[in-house]
Every structure is written in C-alpha cells, then in structure tokens.
C-alpha cells in the first residue's frame, strides 16, 4: 500500500473495508444469542448480552430473563454499545476521509485515536459481562462463553489494530503522496 500510494485504487479502500468488517462483527456480537451457552448435553442455558435463557431439560420450554434488571447488565451493554457506535462513526469518517482526493492526514490520525477510545469501551463491556455474570447468576451444567462473545472480542481487537494503522499512516505521508525520490541500489561501474 505504501509502495503505490493511497491513490492506487485497490489499496485505498483496505482500511475502510476492514472497519466495515469490524462493524459487521459488532452487529453479530450485539444480536447474537451465543454469549454464554451450555457446553454439553442437555443444553439448558443460553445467554446474550441482553438476556439469559434457561430450560429445565432437553425437551423443556425456554424461560428468559432480561439482564437489564441488573446494574452490571446495563453497564456491560452500555459500554459495549458505546464502543460499537464509536466504531460506526469511525467507519463513516474513514469513508469520507478516503473518498476525498487530497487526504487529510491529521483527520486520519483522529480516526485512529477515536478507534482506541472505542476499543476501551468495548473491552470494558467484554470484561464486565463474564465477571459479573459468573458471580451473580447461578449457572447450571458446564457452560462456555461462545461464538457471539468471540465476535465481540474480535471487534475489540480489530479496533485496537486498526487504531494503530490509522495513527501510523500519517508518518508515511511523503511516501504515500509520492514526494520521495526513489533510491536505486544499483550503481554503474
């Protein structure tokens, strides 16, 4: 990407594309019912960020309770949701920043800083949830934090990594814009 510059059409949209994938992973984490699941048969417990569902046996009816009745449930949902909204804002700003012909590198560095703030909020929600869930809600059987919780962590890790990319990209401004003369390693005899 640095070799061809950000004007190279296929490389220009890599970072906004990765942010878009992070947004999709965040939607899956917010909507997924697999934050906590039973690991073995009979599957008797399943929880999302918003509710906890149980059933008495394999053929029983699921009964769900909202986690919004707990202060920690509201805190976990709010902090993760704030992190996700900041990620969506960064995605929109990245589309705007890379669509403009002349890049504003300070603007790109600001997106990176905002991604770090989003990562802090996401990680706070992802830490509050399992700690308080396992200490305050009685769990039956063998349970595991499952796929939707993993998508939440993937989103947080993407926010951190992309924050580094967005913050470090302005350091290569001259190479990206083509203002540096190429150096040749071949010298004639």
From TrEMBL:
Top-level taxon: Eukaryota
Pfam families from the UniProt entry: PMP22_Claudin
Gene, per the UniProt record: Perp_1
Family membership noted in the UniProt record: Belongs to the TMEM47 family.
Biological processes annotated in GO: apoptotic process; cell-cell adhesion
Keyword field: Apoptosis, Cell adhesion, Cell junction, Cell membrane, Cytoplasm, Membrane, Transmembrane, Transmembrane helix
Transmembrane segments: 12-32, 77-100, 107-131, 151-172
Membrane topology classification: Multi-pass membrane protein
Organism per entry: Eulacestoma nigropectus
Name of the protein in its database record: p53 apoptosis effector related to PMP-22
GO CC terms of this entry: cytoplasm; desmosome; plasma membrane
Main location: other
């Amino acid at each position: 990407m640095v070799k061809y510059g950000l004007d190279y059409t296929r490389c220009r949209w890599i970072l906004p594309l990765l942010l878009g994938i992070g947004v999709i992973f965040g939607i899956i984490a917010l909507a997924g019912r697999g934050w906590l699941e039973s690991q073995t048969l009979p599957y008797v417990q399943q929880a999302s960020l918003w509710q906890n569902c149980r059933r008495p046996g394999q053929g029983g009816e699921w009964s769900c309770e909202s986690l919004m009745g707990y202060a920690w449930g509201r805190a976990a949902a709010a902090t993760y949701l704030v992190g996700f909204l900041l990620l969506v804002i960064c995605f929109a700003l990245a589309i705007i920043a890379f669509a403009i012909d002349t890049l504003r590198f300070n603007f790109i560095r600001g997106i990176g800083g905002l991604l770090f703030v989003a990562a802090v909020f996401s990680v706070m929600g992802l830490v509050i949830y399992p700690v308080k869930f396992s200490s305050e809600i009685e769990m039956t059987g063998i349970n595991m934090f499952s796929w939707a919780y993993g998508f939440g962590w993937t989103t947080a890790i993407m926010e951190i990594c992309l924050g580094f990319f967005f913050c470090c990209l302005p350091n290569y401004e001259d190479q990206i814009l083509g203002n540096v003369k190429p150096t040749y390693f071949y010298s004639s005899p």
